[in-house]
Task: structure prediction
Amino acid sequence: MGMCLPCLGGAADDVVVTPDPDARRRQLAEAAEKRQKETTYRGVKNPEAVERKKKKQEEMEKQEMTGSVSGGGGGGGGLRWQVG
Result:
């Protein structure tokens, strides 16, 4: 019976202290963000390349939109015929 008493004395050291609500909220937000990224890039070998390609595509679309607006009265949307 004397063997169990040292085990009970060490039980207080094993207690995990829960963080304050703000820290817990931050941890949960970080975990959710990480899960979302993992889900987004599931099956993708190089997620950085995918991001670069996506940003480049968005820039191209943005340039097309600004180019067609500033193109004005050509009526062709930026396309020009060249006779050569």
User: Anything to note?
Assistant: The chain has a mean pLDDT of 78. The first helix runs from residue 5 to 10.
